[in-house]
Amino acid sequence: MTCMNKTNIHNKNQNKKLLVASIAMVVALALFASPIVAMDDAFATKKKKGNHAEQSISQSQASVQNALCASGGTTFLSCNNVSFQHQKNSGNNALAQDDDDDNGGNSADQSISQSQSSSQNSQVVSGGDTIGSGNNINVQSQENSGSNAAAQS
């Protein structure tokens, strides 16, 4: 039987605290550095043959549902699939470029895309009434109140 003295317990607690602090510092550094590293997507890049920029806002949703009910009696309000999907984009996708040399001009690719899909299947086998059962309901809406503007000179 081994006994741990207070010094060993204190050292283990200190090691745990140091590990937690180190992990917190690494996460904080990653959160701070990630926007700086990802900046190239938001700005036009200048090459020897003019400027080229690509910007996009994309949203996507999918729903896959399947229900199967087998009953020897009544299947009241059973095996229903319900899907509500809503996408809203109220931001802007603006791009501006200035080509101050005569080596090829500007090119820009901009897009705002939204997509939704739903696949539903319901099967009911019943020995009695199937009131309110086996229904597939899917409500989808998309809204984009932002703008998609590009300016080049």
UniProtKB/TrEMBL annotation:
Region of interest: Disordered: 87-153
UniProt feature, compositional bias: Low complexity: 104-126
Domain of life: Archaea
Biased composition (Polar residues): 132-153
Designated name of the protein: Uncharacterized protein
Species, as recorded: Candidatus Nitrosocosmicus oleophilus
